[in-house]
């Protein structure tokens, strides 16, 4: 019996590696995948950082706005803090833009009345002025909110302790240039920095109110001097013009 073996071909390719072209193609594909993944990862990190920064910034702005709102709730009158304010006062801001002027009754003592039976807060009050001005070196630009009062902290009591002779709340008032001061008769300090106008411009006030302020802090003061709409704009960072808005509506005390 005869056996024939023909046309048998042994495949030597099983012992071969990748060609140079195959290696280059695989390397390029892997580089593209890594680059895309890296770009996506960096983008996620940037978005997370921006969200954290915005949350922190909004929290700071809300704290400042709440401070102002709480002081308005203690006031009996809110008027514009500029040379045209009438009634009842004229306010001159030496360096900056006036926003509003509050007339705040002195807190009552336990008895609530003096020897003649008259309520103390009807006889004694102090003045608080809020205005905006440029930020100092080391503070976030471009602007800051300042608070000036003719009564120092702690607040005066009804008998005059801490502030024997506060200037009349109905008199003309000149606010000096920004300078942190806590003396025997004044309190002058900044509230928050990094304030700037939004790209959309100043807010629009409802009917029956007048817009006051500027440089990122605005108040719509109603003609009854008992209601204020507050708008505060802060920059997200010193390297961007993007701003964050916080706002609220506040009412003064009824008497």
What would your notes on this structure say?
This protein is α+β, with helices and mostly antiparallel strands and 255 residues long. It has one domain. 22% of the residues lie in helices and 30% in strands. The protein has one helix and twelve strands. It has one helix at residues 20-74; strands at 77-79, 91-93, 97-105, 125-134, 143-149, 173-175, 181-182, 187-195, 209-214, 217-222, 227-235, 243-251. The strands form three sheets. It has a six-stranded antiparallel sheet, with helices on one face. Strands 9-10-11-12 form a four-stranded antiparallel sheet, covered by helices on one side. A hairpin with a 2-residue loop joins strand 9 (209-214) and strand 10. The longest helix is centred in the N-terminal third of the chain and has 55 residues, at 20-74. It starts with 19 loop residues before the first helix and ends with a strand. Mean pLDDT is 78; it is low at 162-167.
Strand order of the largest sheet: 1-3-4-5-8-7
- What does the average pLDDT come to? 78
Q: What's the helical proportion of residues?
A: 10-25%
User: N-to-C SSE series?
Assistant: HEEEEEEEEEEEE
The total tally of domains equals 1
Give the low-confidence spans: 162-167
Distance between the termini: 128 Å
Radius of gyration: 33 Å
Organism: Anabaena sphaerica FACHB-251
Pfam family, one: N_methyl
Keywords: Membrane, Transmembrane, Transmembrane helix
InterPro entries: N_methyl_site (IPR012902), Pilin-like (IPR045584)
């Amino acid at each position: 019996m005869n056996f024939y073996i023909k046309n048998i071909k042994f495949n030597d390719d099983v012992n071969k590696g990748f060609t140079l072209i195959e290696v280059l193609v695989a390397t390029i594909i892997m580089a593209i995948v890594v680059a895309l993944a890296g770009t996506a990862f960096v983008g996620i990190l940037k978005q997370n950082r921006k969200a954290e920064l915005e949350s922190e910034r909004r929290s700071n702005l809300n704290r400042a706005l709440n401070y102002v709102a709480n002081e308005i709730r203690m006031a009996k009158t809110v008027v514009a803090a500029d040379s045209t304010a009438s009634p009842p006062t004229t306010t001159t801001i030496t360096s900056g833009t006036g926003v509003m002027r509050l007339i705040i009754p002195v807190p009552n003592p336990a008895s609530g009345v003096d020897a003649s039976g008259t309520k103390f807060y009807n006889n004694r009050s102090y003045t608080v002025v809020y205005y905006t001005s440029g930020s100092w070196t080391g503070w976030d630009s471009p602007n800051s909110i300042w608070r000036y009062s003719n009564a120092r902290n702690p607040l005066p009591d009804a008998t005059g302790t801490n502030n024997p002779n506060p200037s009349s709340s109905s008199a003309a008032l000149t606010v000096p240039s920004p300078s942190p001061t806590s003396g025997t008769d004044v309190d002058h300090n900044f509230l928050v920095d990094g304030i700037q106008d939004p790209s959309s411009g100043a807010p629009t006030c409802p009917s029956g109110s007048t817009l006051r302020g500027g440089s990122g802090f605005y108040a719509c003061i109603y003609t009854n001097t008992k209601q204020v709409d507050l708008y505060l704009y802060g920059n997200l960072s010193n390297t961007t013009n993007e701003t964050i808005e916080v706002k609220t509506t506040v009412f003064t005390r009824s008497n």
